[in-house]
């Protein structure tokens, strides 16, 4: 799911869609309007799921899509290799996610973990 907002309403730390990928805004710089043009904004972002750096430049009056990012909790049912079977604590649906190497020691059977979901993709959000 996604909603549409104007570029001038965006803030650092919020989310935006660039190249059909949900991204976190790292910096925004805005220029003043010129004699014949409108104010421009340069937005530097990092992909939420692929960690790629991207940037976009455009007028602050343009509209841009913002993904609906949800933070949810799930219980770890089982772990087989690097795949964890999880049960969502809200609707009790079960699904599988790949456990990244940096989270292998923190994802334990029977424990509760948090994860992010946006645009049909999911990732662990262990802080």
TrEMBL record:
Listed GO molecular functions? ribosome binding; RNA binding; translation elongation factor activity; translation initiation factor activity
Q: Which residues carry this modification: Hypusine?
A: 35
The record's keywords, sorted A to Z, are:
Cytoplasm, Hypusine, Initiation factor, Protein biosynthesis
GO biological process terms, semicolon-separated:
positive regulation of translational elongation; positive regulation of translational termination
Q: Known SUPFAM superfamilies for this protein?
A: Nucleic acid-binding proteins, Translation proteins SH3-like domain
Q: Which family does it belong to?
A: Belongs to the eIF-5A family.
Q: What does this protein do?
A: Functions by promoting the formation of the first peptide bond.
The name this protein goes by in its record: Translation initiation factor 5A
| Protein encoded by which gene | eif5a
């Amino acid at each position: 799911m996604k909603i549409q907002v104007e570029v001038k309403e965006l803030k650092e730390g919020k989310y935006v869609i660039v190249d059909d990928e949900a991204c976190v805004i790292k910096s925004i710089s805005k220029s003043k309007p010129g004699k014949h043009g409108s104010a421009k904004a340069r937005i530097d972002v990092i992909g939420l799921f692929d960690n790629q750096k991207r940037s976009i430049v455009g007028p602050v009056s343009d509209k841009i899509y913002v993904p609906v990012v949800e933070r949810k909790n799930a219980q770890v049912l089982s772990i087989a290799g690097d795949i964890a079977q999880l049960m969502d604590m809200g609707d009790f649906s079960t699904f599988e996610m790949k456990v990244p190497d940096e989270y292998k020691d923190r994802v334990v059977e029977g424990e509760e973990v948090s994860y992010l979901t946006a645009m049909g993709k999911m990732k662990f959000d262990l802080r």
